[in-house]
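note to self — DONT lose this again. spent like an hour looking for the file last time. sequence + predicted structure for the chain T wanted, 529 res
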Amino acid sequence: MTTILYKNGKLPSRHGAADAIVAENGVITAVGNGKELALQLAGRSYSTVDWEGAHVLPGLVDSHLHLGMHGMKLDMLDFTGVSSKEEMLRMIRERAEVTPAGQWILGLGWNENEFSPAVAPHVGELDEITDRHPVFLTRTCFHAYLGNSEAFRRAGITEGTPDFASGAYGRGEDGRLNGWVYEDASAPFMAVQPAPDYAAKKEAMRRGYLDALAHGITAVHTEDLRLLDSVETMLRIHRELKEEGLFFRTHQLLYNTYLPEVEALGLHAGQGDEWLRLGAVKLFTDGAIGGRTALLEQPYSDAPHTSGIAIYTQEQIHEITAAARRLGFPIAVHAIGDAAARMTLTAMEHAPLPMSAALPDRFIHAQVLNAGLVQRMKQLRLIADIQPRFVASDFPWVLDRVGTERREYLYAWNKLLSSGIPCAGGSDAPIEPINPFLGLHAAVTRRKPEETHDGYLPGEKLSVEEAVGLFTSGSAVAAGEEHERGAIAAGRWADFTVIDRDIHADPQELLQVKVQMTVVNGQVAYSAT
């Protein structure tokens, strides 16, 4: 038996004067005074870790991201934080100068709403940089893209190519392609890009593990099948990384098109161990507000010609839900617009989750709601899987998109919690930074880090305790692990996020946090020293 005494830590205030924790075989067995616990361990073999006065939180868990793509992002052009079209074009030009002719130039993370003026590059500007490389760039939302003419040529897309039912090609006022690609219309571009081999996929996952641990994250709920392209590959990679000594927990959402493989392997929801467990079946009902592909009941206020894009019909959503239910799985549905929310709830009501189900359904994002939708959510066994950092990224421009008549239930995290709907918190990395303390800051302040006003829709602010709860107890409920983690208590896993400061007195401290140590299953998985 491996016994460890963690001492000299500043635990959450509910633990009173306790400053130490005993963990045995990865599970907390005692919380109390360090000297007293040391006396209780007298005569036994144990090791000691000194936290030296650092602040200790229950292990933070990101309830929604794409860990493999986050790892892949580290090799791509990263436009996160770019503030102008000119800067973006400069980065593409510099990459083209060092990239062999014919190879793809890939990038991601730009948000033209942060530019002044708010204009993204045009296909002609990309063509001016290079006609020797296909260029394909993914917007920060991962629901809209930009390509140059060479990318369109390789994808086989011409002026006469029809739009997808669940996607579209952008066109200018003259009717010609302008370089924009929306939703599933990206499939032909993805199909002609060189696929990463097994080693590249595994390395992307490894980088994702290590970066998450360095940010104080002890576990993630991730959907990686669209990158890894096989359930067996996903299981193999995570098993090998664990065997290689990486201490990190994953809860795997299963993209719906892989259900035949899931069935062939005889897998079921909740299956796995303390390191990897299988979760819900993931599907999309719409896109994102930034690219105006989120599905709204009424047209966009700043673009009355569109209400967004439906990825599936209602009947198709029913069919996917029925297939998941037949195999014993809950569903995890990406739904941002209010029309997408309606379709999602209709599907959940049409095929109710059995009371015996190991896990709840997930309502992912839930950014544009109304009172009626919230009432319907309350009647179902679901958890709202929210991303507080979107508030910092999307305001104030999102108000122009949806208009004043829809703002009452816009990113309404406080209303959801106050209604008794359990909520879990994530980053949606690589769409947003993986740093959980940026998400906590957004949840508490409802503003960007550099801003000082009272917050966007300040009535929806959360307390620090509520925000931390999204990434601890909330994420535990989402994974059916509320009795195993989410709090510092005997019988829970010994997972801790150890930081250098108190985050409760001043929300601005959240922006300065330095992670000192990340402990997973009683093992130091990351240390700043």
